[in-house]
Amino acid sequence: MKRSAIVGSVIAGAVVLALGGAGLAWWLGSAPEPAPSASSSASPSAEPTVDLPTAVQEQVDAYADACAEPAAAVPGHCGIVIPWAADLAQLTSVAFRVEQRPTVAISADGGSFAATGGVLVASVTGTTRDGVAATFTYRTDAWTLRGDIDDEGDRIVVSVR
């Protein structure tokens, strides 16, 4: 199931990200052209272009960092699966350490992306079935985030699934 939310905005061409709901979305646009100065020519210049792979990687990095914030539960839509129930009866907190963020690859048609190869360590704290407080550590070398890239004419919306 794919979920996305409008949670960002473009301010003078800058990409701004905020987390909300169960997904991620941002827009990529171009900044308004500055007025010509006395020393510049009066001919119109080409619109600035957005380096899509770099912009997507930066936003996925920010999203991954937000996913790795300490929490009371495993965050959804972050590509994180922790088998804590094998060791604990009750989970009270999760602390993460990002050793390597996932690397973005955009599909040939530009309609989706896969960010793969991330390395994530999670330390979970809770209560065992014996009623004892305990902490267990889990590691993945295959942390992955996937999503879609939608061209809506004047903006590009990227959603993490």
Largest beta-sheet characterization = 6 strands, antiparallel
Structural class: mainly beta
Number of strands: 8
Tell me the strand percentage band: 35-45%
Rounded to the nearest angstrom, the distance between the terminal CA atoms is: 7 Å
Description:
This protein has 161 residues and is mainly beta. It has one helix spanning 52-67, and strands spanning 9-11, 14-16, 27-28, 90-100, 103-106, 112-127, 133-151, 156-160. The strands form 2 sheets. Strands 3, 4, 5, 6, 7 and 8 form a 6-stranded antiparallel beta sheet that branches. A two-stranded antiparallel sheet has the order 1-2. β1 (9-11) and β2 (14-16) form a beta hairpin. It starts with 8 loop residues before the first strand and ends with a strand.
